[in-house]
Design brief:
Layout: H1 5-36, H2 45-76, H3 78-90, H4 95-102, H5 111-122, H6 127-138, H7 141-156, H8 160-227, H9 242-269, H10 276-293
Helix pairs in contact: 1-2, 2-10, 3-4, 3-8, 4-5, 5-6, 6-7, 7-8, 8-9, 8-10, 9-10
């Protein structure tokens, strides 16, 4: 990774703040359009609210997705790197020498980080400091935990090669457990997506078929009673509330999509930001389907 921890964090926070600011401004315009009863070029106030919410979700979600994908690629080759360090240690190399030798190997996305460490060691930086700099740049629980063990073992002295072998094995086992967990959680993600689209289909049927028929029936009953000069008969369908009900259904769809998407991210890796992209996808697809079918 070319960025250190602080740069990556600041960049993510900046993108999040910009997205929230732009999204909030767009949503505010939509709310103003609602109160002023304005519609411009076929664009409804709800369109702008959804667009603003999409911006607030999409920009941080895309950045987080791309950044975490890079981190995962670095982590994938970490066990191989640690195993090679252990083998070099068994041939009598120190940890610093092993890292310099390993820097000529191929470890995918991890290669650049290894070369950084090797260059620092060759410039005279202590190996423990080079490893700490590596953890600050990558900054994932797996890397932090593994490297902390290596630093402690190197400080204590003794046979670091055995420690490296155990750490490499533990890193591989951790990755396998994470993959198994992701596969298991994908089932729950599928259930959430399915429930969202079933809910969406229900809303479409209600808003396009059932509620319009209720409005017609309410008007027919009211007209019949007025012709019979019986205005106080307690048989009435409150069809004037149907637009409010349709709006509440659309609002529920928006909340359902965003909530399900964020829940998918939490189930997958325990992070809210990890679900922003899913929330954006469900929100946008659900609202577009409502618009196309005329349910809005």
């Amino acid at each position: 990774m070319a960025e250190d921890k602080n740069d990556a964090t600041k960049k993510g926070e900046t993108i999040t703040y910009i997205a929230l600011g732009v999204g909030s401004a767009i949503m505010a315009i939509g709310i103003i359009m609602y109160f002023l009863h304005i519609e411009f070029a076929g664009i409804m106030y709800l369109d702008l609210v959804v667009i603003g919410l999409s911006v607030a979700l999409a920009l941080p979600g895309i950045y987080d997705f791309t950044y975490m994908r890079k981190i995962k690629k670095v982590e994938e080759r970490l066990p191989d790197f640690l195993r090679d360090l252990a083998e070099a240690g068994r041939f009598g190399m120190t940890l610093a020498e092993a890292i310099v030798v390993a820097s000529s190997g191929r470890y995918g996305a991890l290669s650049d980080e290894i070369k950084r460490m090797a260059a620092k060691i060759q410039w005279g930086v202590p190996v423990n400091q080079a490893l700490e700099d590596f953890t600050r740049r990558v900054n994932t629980p797996l890397v932090n935990r593994m490297v902390a063990i290596i630093i402690k073992a190197n400080q204590a002295g003794g046979n670091v090669a055995d420690v490296l072998s155990m750490v490499a094995h533990a890193a591989r086992e951790t990755q396998l457990m994470e993959k198994e967990r992701a596969i298991e959680m994908s089932t729950y993600g599928f259930v959430l997506v399915t429930s969202f689209f079933v809910f969406l289909a229900t809303i479409i049927i209600l808003n396009t078929s059932f509620l319009p028929q209720m409005a017609k029936a309410g008007k027919a009953v009211e007209e019949s009673l007025s012709h019979l000069a019986m205005p106080n008969v307690p048989v009435k369908i409150a069809y004037e509330n149907i637009p409010t009900i349709k709006f509440m259904f659309v609002l529920a769809t928006i909340m359902h999509g965003v909530g399900d998407g964020i829940m998918m991210g939490i189930l997958r890796d325990g992070r809210i930001k990890g679900g922003m992209l899913y929330g954006f996808a469900l929100l946008l697809s659900g609202y577009m389907i409502l618009r196309i079918t005329g349910a809005v």
